[in-house]
Amino acid sequence: MKKKHPWLVDIGKNIRAIRESKGLSQEELAELVEIDRTYIGGIERGERNVASLNLIRIAIALNTEVGNLFPRLDMLPLISRY
Amino acid sequence: MKKKHPWLVDIGKNIRAIRESKGLSQEELAELVEIDRTYIGGIERGERNVASLNLIRIAIALNTEVGNLFPRLDMLPLISRY
DNA sequence: TTGTGACTTTAAGTCCGTC
DNA sequence: GGACGGACTTAAAGTCACA
């Protein structure tokens, strides 16, 4: 099991929640976004530090604003800086 | 001059606009975020495909939601998929 | 104060598989 | 349907000298 940054875990939870709300499997999302299915899994588990372009593509596939994939500023533990 | 993806250019513009609205130089932002000045420059010029953690750190430094750094879904030319 | 090219190191992202 | 691992290729992270 890989190391997980709390912020990435948040992002992963958000993506998973939205994906499931759309009734999509990881594999189906992977196909929409044209990203490897194991990578989608890794993102949702908070193990991957996804780059902007892929985040945007995921947001498009999920038909949601990119901002919805991120935790709100108030929710971030500012003490744990990176 | 490096190749620039339109979406990254949008992100760069947003970051630059917010940074300047705060009266910060690239160097000052770089120090806040603890990222190299030239890397910040590259992001603002749309030459870097920044990953989530750095985006969040930049958003924190600029005291703005991460979503504000991204273009809105409606603004994305959906035809040019990646 | 910022842009840019060249560069090394690290991690993103793919593809195979098993449980 | 999803978690997870290994091995791999590509791209991002990160730094520097100089314009």
Automatic annotation (TrEMBL), chains A, B:
Q: Which UniProt keywords apply?
A: DNA-binding, Transcription, Transcription regulation
Q: Which GO terms describe its molecular function?
A: DNA binding; DNA-binding transcription factor activity
What PANTHER family would the database entry show? HTH-TYPE TRANSCRIPTIONAL REGULATOR, HTH-TYPE TRANSCRIPTIONAL REGULATOR SUTR
**Species this chain originates from:** Planktothrix serta PCC 8927
What is the designated name of this protein?
Regulatory protein munI
The protein's matches in InterPro entries, at most eight in alphabetical order, are given as: Cro/C1-type_HTH, Lambda_DNA-bd_dom_sf, TransReg_Diox_bact_type
Describe the location of the HTH cro/C1-type domain by residue ranges.
15-69
Asked if the keyword Zinc belongs to this entry, the reply reads no
One term under GO cellular component:
cytosol
